[in-house]
Amino acid sequence: MRSYTLIAPAKINLYLEIIGDRADGYHELVMILQSIDLADQIELHSIDSETIRVHCDHPQVPTDKSNLAYRAAELMATQFPEAFRKYGGVEITVNKHIPVAAGLAGGSTNAAAVLVGIDLLWNLGLTQSELEELGASLGSDVPFCVAGGTAIATGRGEQLSPLPSLDTIYIVLAKYRSLEVSTAWAYKTYRQQFGNTYIRNTEDLAARAAAVHSGGIVKAIFDKDTAEIAQKLHNDLERVVLPAYPQVLHLREVFANQAGVLGTMMSGSGPTVFALVESFQQAEAVKLNITEAISSEDLELFVTRMTTHGIQIVSSV
Ligand code: C5P
Asked: Which HAMAP family would you find in this protein's record (predicted)?
């Protein structure tokens, strides 16, 4: 029997622009995705029977086929049936630290870890791009979670071009435990309200993506200019999520008024709000101030920082 332990980092969106819709029901996006130190730990064990089992220490996380980690293992079993028969099944244990249904790609990064872990467990020798391609069939954020670091993502979010690494910027994250935003709802509502502004011509879509590539936030990332990155944070989904969730809007305002906060934004489809700050000390001070200002048992806060890596192997037995 063999086993692997992996670290699966969460992500935040430094930039999310919705530029069009697609025949497959998804949206054409230009995003800048950033891995952060807040991470789940995933253990994978080979087991005798040809089955997939998932365990998780978080009561809200399902352990059946609705869990993306389960579906990642199932995908590997279908794609590589001989290896599945040879090495047997797999038992997956998820130790959750990333808030659930938060806009932080918690489910996607668990799935990415399962792809990377099973590749090792079954000696498949897949390349990173093969793993990313498998990941894309599970969810739009899974390829980025395999790669990690800082990247521009286009298409439905699965086409990645790496950007220079940012690993010195501290972040404070806040999420109401009881609040969940459906990603499908956020995109559908955006389409209903702003679909008339979508670009529908392929050349213009490419031109818009290219404009972001050469735009202000990307330049700020190349310059490693934290204050400028913070000024250029953007997320189109705030236009539908903030009006519908006053608590998130309030959180966003409280963050914006804190000393030491360089910029604040909602991540993905929310409801997590994050702020970029200059130092660890400032991040701790912001966390304390927000805890006092909002004083709710339901609010969870984290101090974390940007990281350069995606899925990492921490041990193998
Ligand atoms: O790809 P993923 O399963 O994470 O997406 C969740 C939902 O978000 C999709 O079902 C779709 O409604 C919406 N979505 C979208 N366009 C994207 C990514 C996600 O409309 N590029």
From this structure: IspE (MF_00061)
